[in-house]
Amino acid sequence: MSSGAPGWGAWSTDPGVIVAIVFTAAAYGACYRRAHRRTGRRYISQLLTFTTGLGLLTLALLSPLDAIGDRWLLSAHMLQHVLLADIAPALLVLGVGPPLLAHGLSPELLRALSPRARLGRLLRSRWFAPVALGLWAATQWGWSIPVVFDAAAGNPWLHAVEHLSLLGSGLLLWMVVVDPLPGQGRRAVWSRLGYLGASRAAAAVVCLPLTWLDRTLYSRYADAPRGYGISGLTDQHIAGAGMCLIEFLVFGVAFISVFLDLLGREEQGTRLKERASESNRDEPAREPVNIS
Amino acid sequence: MATSLAPSPQIATHRVEREPHGWTSWVTTTDHKRIGILYLVTCFVFFMVGGVEALLMRSQLAVPENTLINAEHYNQLVTMHGTTMIFLFVIPVWAGFANYMVPLMIGARDMAFPRLNALSYWLFVAGGVVFYSSVFWNPPDAGWFSYTPLSNGTYSPTAGQDTWIYLIHLTGLASAIGAINIVVTIATMRAPGMGWGRLPLFCWGVLTQAIMLIVAIPVIGAAVTMLLTDRHFHSCYFDPRCGGSPLLWQHLFWFFGHPEVYIMILPGFGVISEVLPVFARKPIFGYRAIAASTVGIAFLSVLVWAHHMFTAPIPLVVLAFFMISSMAIAVPTGVKVINWVATLWRGSILFRTPLYFACGFLVLFTLGGLSGVMLAIFPIDWQLHGSYFVVAHFHFVLVAGAVSAVMSALYYWFPKMTGRMLSESLGKLSFWFQFVGFLVTFGIQHSLGLSGMPRRVYTYNADTGWGTDNLISTIGAFILATGVLLTVANVVRSLKRGVPAGPDPWKANTLEWFSTSPPPAHNFDVIPKVTSVEPMKDLRAQIAQRSRDDGALRTARVRAPVSVAGAVQSTTPGGGEHV
């Protein structure tokens, strides 16, 4: 590592980010406590998932990854984007998955999210999912355009907007995939998985060229000092291949989880139907139908 | 007990036609069972031809500097053998088993599109005929994956290479049509009560294979069309002199080619998942994990194609990506192997020939998987690429994997298809010949590869020291061939003189055993209601319960040879569907 390149100690102390993270943790804590008070249950897996998501968010925005990605390595910047737009939002939304929100939100918020309220209607509208997917794809593609990417990396305000839009669109996309809102009428499993698959296809538009191209696309990183002994082209290949690998693995894990869940639910549903039809059969027999 | 007579649709027959018979009835058939048998017979003919080609190659390599076959003919044999085994045996043989068994296993009366089914078979035959017609002039000699520029008009100017292209077109079309038929059949024609969570694991394998075919076939179809236009219309897809890239061919071919490996093996996994619980006399361990692993393998299989190209000029990082994704496939595969072993664990094992082949599969395929993980590590692949180690690896996966599973399926389902049992003693003898022959043939090839012997060479110098290993490998090949011939003899003998099987000779778990052996044209008089993953076990329990209730157990024992199927069809348990 050359002198000047950020090392393990290069953590950021950006007050805005720290306040946002602490506020989010506090809000989740309140929601969790309320749900626990109401049901007496502990939602350990959701707590762990949310905490990990928040941890990854902290890692993406405050760790040396941010400093390295700003100016030294495209691969670090891309990893930061994957964490912000995909992994952290996925874990955060999974952390508030059913039934936590239904039991943990205050009555006012529950009312606001109910299907009759404007926000609830908006979140359950049939346009919500395609718009969320479109936004996610647009942010992925838009911020990856070399001129825009380099400009954002060089301007702190634009950089903040970039990160906020990635996180926001990630949260919206995973809202569609996980569907954590309380109440009936959840989207069909296969449709949610379809949206996730489509998002991976959108990500492939960015990650595959980065993986395979034999020339650098981002001048900011191609011309950057080689602080970590990695050439500009190798750095770009790592960025693309890493992004592809993570995006595809996320889909693979989600696909298998949903598949297993689907098999279980289907079997459960079939058994319920069978039990219901058996109990109907046990009822006093009706008059036989004469079909002669 | 009051009997409720539910109204059921009646079929009015105005004219009874004689059931067609003779060879024309086979040519014009749209019955899934007959098409299945046509597939199986045709595939086994091609298997024999491909096997003879393999024996010729092994004979040539048995001793150094042999002059039995010249270089040109050796290259043609390599191409014909590989192409035959992949496109004319392993892939379509599963279409044969799927055609015969899937409708029976899911309680359907036929495939969703019977005529398309017949079309798919005849396209496959046409592909094989076109391909083998090339032996009358110049067979293709660019290898089964026809890398460019070797396969372009300059280096393969004869029409033999074109027959290879037409073979891919025709068999690809056949596979795609068959795959769509399978998907629609399984999605829409399952018996009442057979949710996705109760679909037999063989059907999961076949369904996943069909979806993979639909994804992969268009890619190879496009690639060979591009090759055809390069050869005859001077397009430049793969010619670097006018801006094309030979690497593009490799990417396109392997984007199809690696899923292809799983296309060949996933139905085999399904067979093993059916056979093991039947002969272990206990339920399959981890049904859902095995089904999920099947789709997991399918998903990962489209992300690993470049591990066949580790020695091509590809960035190091990309190699690392494909190394990781290739190694990841070991996870769902390992899940399956562990579940299969757990199924056998503490079972009341019934040692019959299908189980022998299934266990042979478990041992040999796992070994092949381990050498696959080795080859997935690209620095190791750099050392072993293009050597006999790779030949040994993929034969462990395809011969030990796919062919063992095919043999297991044949011994398991032959009684259902013909109504006669295969000879157990001949079957077990055949298994041991094949098992030992296989290990001798291909085990030693790992050593040859590690000693540096390249694949596709037609001869070698005596001073290389490869003579003894090659001789052992050739002897093994003949032992293996003897094993296969014993199975052929067994089939021929049993067709005439086999012990009558009855509908359910194995006391098996899935619905195909509910029908008579062989099943009638309409498959079932009554389609039973499925209540679990093992419907036959439930039906037997229902019959036993009903027999006890009626006090008719003694009568049932006297009529022991009469099957559960017959008894069940007469009593119609569980609200089944009548014709």
Annotated CATH architecture of chain B: Up-down Bundle
Shape of chain A: globular
Write down the overall mean pLDDT of chain B. Answer: 90
Q: Structural class, from helix and strand content of chain A? A: mainly alpha
Oligomer: heterodimer
Shape of chain B: globular
Gyration radius of chain B (Cα, Å) is: 25 Å
Q: Please count the beta strands of chain A (DSSP E, at least 2 residues each).
A: 0
Count of strand segments of chain B: 2
- Domain module tally of chain A: 1
Account of the 3D structure:
The complex is a heterodimer of chains A (292) and B (579). Chain A contains 13 helices and no strands. Chain A has helices at 15-39, 44-62, 64-71, 74-95, 100-104, 107-113, 118-124, 128-144, 146-154, 156-178, 189-212, 219-222, 232-282. The N and C termini of chain A lie far apart (92 Å). Chain B has 579 residues and is mainly α. Chain B has a single domain, classed as Up-down Bundle (Cytochrome C Oxidase, Chain A). Helix content of chain B is 66%, strand content 1%. Chain B has helices at 23-27, 32-61, 71-106, 114-133, 159-188, 201-233, 246-280, 287-301, 316-328, 330-344, 353-376, 378-384, 388-418, 424-450, 467-497, 535-550, 553-558, 564-571, and strands at 526-527, 577-578. In chain B, strands 1-2 form a two-stranded antiparallel ribbon. Chain B starts with 22 loop residues before the first helix and ends with a strand.
